[in-house]
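[Automated response] Your request has been received and processed.

Submitted sequence:
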Amino acid sequence: MTEWITSGTWHLDDTAQGRLRSAMELMLGDKVLDIGCRDGTFVLTAARDNPNKQFIGTDIDNANIDMANAKAEELGIKNATFFYDDITDSKLPMKGEFDTVYCMETMEHLLPDTLERAHNNSTAFCKKGGRFVISVPASTHISDPDHKSVFYREIMMRDNPDLKWSDTCPHLWLMFYLDV
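Generated structure:
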């Protein structure tokens, strides 16, 4: 059983842990980016458990970034770094550098007219042969008033035939991946 490193600022119940484990199973390579990393729970835990890999997390909330960097320093996790970045207007210069790029529980917070730009910016971080992993709440699990976009598995699969479905992710979320 994985012991997740978290700030305790969000509810990390059994199903949320299952989602993170499913995401962990999809990781490729040695250089990983998590877009919308919140408090760094996924990155910090993955970095601790994979000390030979490099992890970067980004978020639009500076308090989350500061908290994650402080936690990495406190725990002596040297292979995880966190930066402020907005995926709809990314300024990070690391395009094409990552083996795996995650964007979990982020896209639903974006307005529909920014989704394509955010998707293109996200996948641009993947190196050739890399993997882009996305998870969003299932259409039956829209519980946050800040959610601005809704996703349906059938439509995503129909409109993106190269997407692969993660069948280990708990039913409250949709998790897909695209090998680039």
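Summary generated for your ticket: The chain has one domain: 14-143. The mean pLDDT is 90.
If you did not submit this request, please reply to this message.
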